[in-house]
Amino acid sequence: MQSVTTQPFSLLISDLHLRESDPSIFEHLQSVLHTHAVGAHALYVLGDLFEYWLGDDTLDHPWHAAICRAFAERAEAGTQLFFMHGNRDFLLGDAFAKQSRMTLLTDPTLVNLHGTPTLLLHGDTLCTDDIDYLAFRRQVRDTTWQRWFVSRPLDERIAMAQTARAQSQAAQHDKTPQITDVNNAAVEQMLRQHHYPRMIHGHTHRPMCHQHQLDGHLCERWVLPDWRTDQTGWLRCDMTGCRIEYT
Hints:
By secondary structure, this protein is of the alpha/beta class. It has helices at 23-34, 62-76, 94-100, 131-140, 143-150, 154-172, 177-180, 184-193, and strands spanning 9-13, 42-45, 80-84, 102-105, 109-113, 116-120, 198-201, 208-214, 217-223, 233-238, 241-246. Helix 1 (23-34) runs parallel beside helix 2 (62-76).
């Protein structure tokens, strides 16, 4: 009988924006972990797994514990799990990673993804035209500010996160698509800095593959799909390349 060789592959996801008020997104995640991720060499979560994360002291919440358990089960089945912070879950820490059996990655991280040097980012640092957002990012990534925030009572942190989210949504209406998308010069600078790799990121919610001709090099830039109630998407990569898949 002829043997069948399965090509090693990895999945990359981002921008799930999990929230307890919409359990369908978590149900989609469970489905992907139990089907499409079966046999995967690695699963990379490139930020914004949650709508917001208020600190690892919330891990005892049953909903958070269920999410950690779903990831841990995939890790126990043999898939390596990696997490990179986004602009919503920058407070996710070592306790969550340990409980979920994930390895935390810095942003950016260069990996050898099935034979191709690949630069992984959340993507927000490429949106250099969004001056207001970058100022907010500098504030919330400051360790002094983070220590102050997680020291506040949980109810206060929830109220602050909800206020910040409402302000962000209102601000989006006044920004052009060019402001909220990546800056091409920032992309090219990043590609040069890391010696012209393939690039994969999320954040912009504009999934597609871009081709960058740069200094005699052709570089792919894959943008990951965001998750919605009616649509789930990821990037599947193997030795032959990458492709976006949807349910």
